Structures are given as structure tokens and as C-alpha cells.
Amino acid sequence: MSLSTAAELEDAKARNKQLVTEVLQAYPEKYAKRRAKHLGTFEEGKPDCGVKSNIKSVPGVMTIRGCAYAGSKGVVWGPIKDMVHISHGPVGCGQYSWAARRNYYIGTTGIDTFVTMQFTSDFQEKDIVFGGDKKLAKIMDEIQILFPLNKGITVQSECPIGLIGDDIEAVSKNKSKEYNGKPIVPVRCEGFRGVSQSLGHHIANDAIRDWIFDKQADKTSAFVGTPYDVAIIGDYNIGGDAWSSRILLEEMGLRVIAQWSGDGSIAELEATPKAKLNVLHCYRSMNYISRHMEEKYGIPWVEYNFFGPTKIVESLRKIASHFDDRIKEAAERVIEKYQRLTQAVIDKYRPRLAGKKVMLFVGGLRPRHVIGAYEDLGMEVVGTGYEFGHNDDYQRTTHYIKDGTLIYDDVTGYEFEKFVEKVQPDLVGSGIKEKYVFQKMGVPFRQMHSWDYSGPYHGYDGFAIFARDMDMAINSPVWGLTKTPWKTTAKTEDGIAP
Amino acid sequence: MTQSATHVLDHFDLFRQPEYKEMLENKKKNFENPVPAEEVERIREWTKTGEYRDKNFAREALTINPAKACQPLGAVFAAVGFESTLPFVHGSQGCVAYYRSHFSRHFKEPTSCVSSSMTEDAAVFGGLNNMVDGLANAYSLYKPKMIAVSTTCMAEVIGDDLNAFIKGAKEKGSVPVEFDVPFAHTPAFVGSHITGYDNVMKGICEHFWDGKAGTAPKLERAPNEKINFIGGFDGYTVGNLREIKRIFNFMGLDYTILGDNSDVWDTPTDGQFRMYDGGTTLQEAANALHAKATISMQEHCTEKTLAFIGGHGQEVLAFNHPMGVAATDKFLMEVARITGKSIPEELAKERGRVVDAIADSSAHIHGKKFAIYGDPDLCLGLAGFLLELGAEPTHVLATNGSKAWAQKVQTLLDGSPFGKNCHVYAGKDLWHMRSLLFTEPVDFLIGNTYGKFLERDTGTPLIRIGFPIFDRHHHHRYPVWGYQGAMNVLVWILDKIFDEIDKHTMVASKTDFSFDIIR
Q1: Does pTM top 0.95 for this prediction?
Q2: Phi then psi for B268, rounded to 5 degrees?
């Protein structure tokens, strides 16, 4: 599908409509109606993408979504490196999320940093029956004994905690007092709350507000500010993303006083209300705390996008516009400095990738944010959707996508498979659960949550890696081997073709 | 700026460049309020001591880096081993996202599984509606031949009754009345993933044999000459089950593998996504009642299942993940005894080849100390093989091991001179193992991917055998059972030993006098 002519565009729109009608036929009537609201085609000029979002997933459909615990422990809190995060409840949640998100950090693990460890209260039946508060208190004591350099503790609630009526707030308060005001943060991110990871982000943001910001109101701080202090908000440093972003901000003369939360520390969280500007990458997961800091401390925030040179340039200028000429000039110098690298990357990879079609289904900011990077390489995103986006995400998406783009919110396994089968993109970008489905179908794939264990993809340094990775996904010789040569079609099950 | 288009630097090189090193040092110094380096070093050294070990072992409440997962993971593992079966996990949806990711990271394969997506309202009113709608949707979209229902801890805490819910759903027409929906309660706060495997395997047998939850007549057992085989929760299920089939076919056996995961987690890339592939057919699952015996390769994965099957009049036999020569001998001889078939000469030759390989290489393994951890049966199998190789399984640890398991390991150790200075640790975790490796060092560590953190901290080289293995590819395609499996494990161990000797001797003009080309 190319959207270059009006006729082709109309064809694409008609095809999308047909496609949506077809997939809905597979559902029982009640749920066909429900899913219909989440599927559509973007019409140029509309304020959003024309789909409903942030609604309960349909039972039994293989949603790609996770839970509130995943949003709090897995995304927001887990990367804070010098605190111990307890997965409070049965063993599984902590086990499956253990070190799985590649939130890079520097530190001596198990001594002064704890990100890639799995601390769990490993609930047993007796804890469910009699409650887990005493166990939790004892766990905190044991953490103090075995990990004396920890700078704080968070309690990441799993499903049973909220159901059995434990008072983790009381335990946390008491223990914090006992340990001279050490930050101990109870987080009510039980997995059954809300409809996806998204509520977990919100709950985690609120916990920072209530248990970090508000608690330190009367503490004296040695922090000495400058007019150029910014905080990176909503970058989880996957594969080092926040580092390849930070370097650009520093090069333009800004002082990055905090990273939220990739490679972040409690000291950085506490210092953030002193920032002059919060720069927000993942709007979805951290707009809450950004708005709070704006209201309470008067700190403005600005969204930026460090995927691909076009958006990086826009973003550097947008961030610089909040500062004086010194910063604005420095931003131009940064843009100039990386021009040669950017051009070399584009010269090398664009000829190999131009015209290739991409379908995305990811979480957070990526269903829109990465589109510019693909376009810098001459590629075209023909379908996109959010795992747990809200309407404000779909509104923002309209600035990125083209007329006729296929939109699918909280896509189900069934729908995604059918869409890809019919649209036949050259690349699918989604998660680990989807990766092998599409590769089996012979469709090149990159994981766009974990960068397929590569990265960083942010910043100029990251763009080179991004371009290289997309090239090796699409142009791998393996895709020439997927058809069995002696069979008429790959779908023929029965032996040798006549 | 060192990034370049001609030679793209990946994260492992990029962040070692001077501009990044300087940036990260400044970040730490200026913004992280870091603990002074000397203090970090002091504590790091302290964690290596016996004093720390004592405090670590005195833990009563906190679990750190456990080597176990929760029941529903094993439930999904067991369910996907049946023909066109869709696992349906009743409870929160995030759990299912985790199981699917976990398996996909290990097998590098898709794992299909749905959830009933229960949220707050279901927590208050129960999840009946989720079950009713969920079964209907799953049935319509994914066209399974069977839906195997298990639970997350949420559904268990609020006390949802699967039997009643499934009946209710069928009454409302979610799925046809005769459609197979076996179920098992799999609370995450009881046991571990191996318990979940057991519960679902039992649940499926019970469903087919005992009248499908009161909706069909119970089957009458009519004993035949077939045997059933259950592999248990096994990271090598793809390679292992194919090896078992090869062996059984050699022996000319008539057999049923209950829970055959070998194809569903090893589908070809040929242009077609197979949501279901292979698996035990539902007919075979039902007919398994009539077999003369059931063999379980992993006792601790099948305690309830075997009791159930035994109760139906079959002989049941449990092994402990047999690995190596003697354990495979025993396994084959028992199979031969039960079936009355002889062990073909080809297998005797395979045996001789492994013994030959051990004889060729044992000098490099003999007397080496190993720490091993994993599921209870895997530990027993590995420990047995190491003893057979003249190695010492110094620390044997299973987070999901029971006291009875520990006793069994102890008996195994007591039975060999190489087990004399070895100890077993039931219910301990990998942070305990860390203390063990510091205070009683060993030459090699055998475990899953998480063992790499122990390798980093203690310098003990890790040999990856277990589940999950995320950071090495394709080993699950190789068997670790049978003589061929013994050969594979022997080679993996030897490769690491030789790599370590080379690493240790490759400094030019210092140590390379021993950098031999023949070993």
C-alpha cells in the first residue's frame, strides 16, 4: 500500500474498512460491537484516531496488555536503582519481571544498587489466610540487615494484597519511623486494578508524590540549583536510551539533575522539584507527576521525541526555546555536530529501506514517537495502535500519522494476525509475545519494547543503531528461505508438489 | 562522538566511550548522592564472609532471587501439550502476559494463552461473567479443540469455583455442552510452577477419565499393553520428548505421551503461523486410562497426577529426571520390564558411546566441585550424573524443594564417595547460593540464566542447564535425557571446563606455557 495518490488512498481506506469488518465477524455479536469501537482508519483532519481506548480488555481474546503491577514495578519504580523494590505477594510476578526490561544502570548490584534482583515476600497460603503485614515488617528488617546501603524500600502490591485487606501503609509508616525517616513507599498497584499497565503508572506516580515529595517537604536539602537544571522524565534507559539522550541535553548546556526512572536514584527523585524544566519523553507513564510538579512547584514541562533526526532536531529546539540564547545557540551547535553522522546513517540505510511498510503495536509513547525515525529512513508506517493508550495519546498520534493509517487499540492476537496477513507490511514492530507469530509467517519483526535486546534507539547515537537494526531485520537473507522450494505454496501441508 | 554509520557501536561498546564514561561519572558524583566507594567496597567484602552467610541464612521472611515460579506457569506448560488446546487462565490478565513472555523468551516461540481479564468489579462480584464471556470469545476466535482452565491467585483469593463457573458458562452457550473444558485450581501461593503442572495434568486426566465433571459417563478401564509417559515441566521438552519417542520407537513400544510439547514449541518458519501444532490428541488422552502403566520422568511434577492414575489401577513409576548412564540404564530397564520388550542393540551401542566419551574425558571432570540449582527432579538427575562422572555436587539447591526431596538428595550423596562433602539446600534461594559460593567455593555452577548474576559476583563459571535459559539460544532443542542427552550434557560441561582452562592460560609470556592445543 502506498498512500501516494488519492485513488490509492481511497483503496487503502476501503481495504481497511473491509478488513475491520472481516475480523469482527469472528467475534460473538456482543463483543464484535465492543471491539468495533477500537478499530478504524485515521481520517486526515480529525482530532483523534477515531477509536475508543483505555477500556477493559475483552475476556478470552489474547490481549497483549499487562497489569498495574507491571506498570508500577516493571516500569516506573523498578529502575530506581538504590532502593529495594519488594514484589509483595506470590512469587510469580516478581519472577517473570525479574531483570527482563533492560533498564540499564551503573552500580554494584546487591550492595548499593538492586535493579536486577528479585525481592519477594513469596506469599504462602498462611499469608493469605492470616495476612502478610507481619511478614512484610520482618522483610523490611531483613533488608536492613542484609543490604545496609539501601536508600529506601518500595512495596509493590500484587493482586492478593488488596483483596485480603493488608495495611501496607501502616507497616511502611512504622518502619520508616523506626529507620529514621528512610523512604518506605507502599504502592497499591495490585494487578486487578484498572484495565492495563496504565493505572499502575498513575498509581506509581501518585506514590512518588505522596511518599517522596510530600515527606521531604520539611527536610533541608543541600541541593544548589542553576538556571539550566532539567529533569528527564519518562525514560527508562532501555538499552541505555536515557544516556544517549542525556548526552545531547548536556552538550546543549543543560544540567540534567534527574533521570526518571532509568538509572535513577532516590536523590534524583528528591531533587526534581528544583528543576527549571521537566522534559517528558514517555507522556503516558509520567504525565501525572509532570502535571503535579507544574501545579505544585510551578515547573513547566515539555514533551520531546528523540527518535530519529527530524524529531530530535525539533525537540532540541523546542527544549532550548525554554532557555536563553546561550542554550539556543548550543542546541544549534549540537544539531550541526551530529549532522555528518545522521547523513552517513541515512545515506547508508535509506536506499535499503525506502518504501518499506511498517505496522506497529506497542505501549507508552512508541506507537507514535518512532514514526518519524522510520520516515527519516524513507519508510512508511501504515498501521499503529496502543497497548494501553488513552484518548490523549490518540490525539497526539494525529500529528504523526498519515491519512488512511489503520488504527487498532488494545489489539487482540486474532486481529493483529489477520491485519498483518492482509496488509502485508515489510516489518512489524511489537513485543516478545508477537515476535515469533509474525516471523513464522515470514514477516520481518523487531521488538519495539526491548529493542530486541539492542539499543539504545534514542538520540543520534541511538538512531544509527535503530537504522542498522531495521535494515538487518528487513534485509536478512533468512526471509528468502521461508518458502520450501519443492512445495507449490508454503501452506500446502502434504508433501512434495506435483 | 564515536558512533559511526560504517561501524555501528552497540550498547556494550557505546557506553564505554570516554564521553559517556565521563558523563556517567559526573551524574553519579553530582546527583546520585552516592555511597562512598570505600564503603561500597567494605560492604561488598562483608557480603563474602561467614558472618554475612549466617545472617543471610537466618532470613525468615524475605526471599531474594528465588529459583522457582508460580503454579499457573506450570499450568500453561501442561495445557499446551495437548492437541489444539488453548490454556485459559481465570483471573487477572497481566499474569498471562507474563507467562507468554516467559515461555517465548526461553523457547523463542509464540505461546498462545488467554485470560478472563478480571478487574475490580470481578474482585467484588466474582468472575463468573468473565468466564462466560471469555470462554465464548476464546472459542469463537481461536477455534480450539479444548480449553484448559486454570487460575491466578486473584481468582483463588476471592474463591471462584471453576467447576460451577464452567457449568454456568456452558448453560449460557459460551461453548457447546460437549466441548472439553478441563480445569484445575492453581493458586500461586501454594507450591510452584511444578505444582501447577501437576494440577493441570491431573485435571485433564480426570476430565477425560472420570466423566467430564459429571457431564458424561465415567470411562471403564479396559487394560491394554500401552504405556503412558509424562515428561513434567521441562525446559528441554522439545529435545527430550523427541528423544524419548525415538527410544520408544526403537523398542517398538505402543505408548502415549501425555502432554507432548515438542511440536508446539518448535514450529517451522515457513510462512505459516501454527497456533497449535502437535500435542497429545484428546482421544489419546482419554484412552490413556487403559494403559498398563504410566511413567513420570519427574516425580515432583506429578505427585497428584500419579496418585490419581495409580488409583485407576495402573502401575505408576516415577523417575527423578534421569541423566547420565546409570540413571538412563535404570529408566530403560524399567520400561523394558513393564512393557516386556527388550532393549535393542542400537541403544546398547549408544550407551557404549557415552561411556566411551566419559572415559575419554573424565580426567577433566574428576574431582571438580559443582554447585547446582534448579527444580527438584533436575537437581537429583544432575547430581546423580555428576557423581557418576567423579565430580562433587558440593551444593545442591532447590527453592521449590521439600524436606522429603532433601532427604532423597542426601541419600544419593551418601551413596557415593564423591558425595561426602556435599550438602543439600531445600527452600533456599540464589542469594543463599551466593553466600555458599563465597564461603565454600566450587569450580563450576550449573543453573539457569539467572545464575549469571552469581557468576558475575563470585567468579564461578556458569554452565547453563535449567529453565529458563534466556541468554543462550536453541539448547532446548537438544535432549538431556537418554544416552544422547547424557552425551549433550557431558559436552556442555566439558566445553565450559576447556574454555575456562584456555581463559586461564592465554596471557602471552605469563601463562601461555599451558595454552595447549591438545587437551
Answers
A1: yes
A2: -75, 155
